[in-house]
Amino acid sequence: ISGSVEGARGSLQYAGGGRVRVLARKEITARAEPGRAQQEDNQDEVQIDVDFSILNPWHITAPQTQAEQEAGAFVPLRVSLNEESDWKIQSSSFPEATDCVAAPSGAVAIYRESLRVKLRARRIRSSGAAQFRISLTVVLQLCDDSQCLLPETLTLIA
Question: What is the DSSP string of 73-88?
Answer without folding.
Answer: SPPPPEEEE-TT-SEE
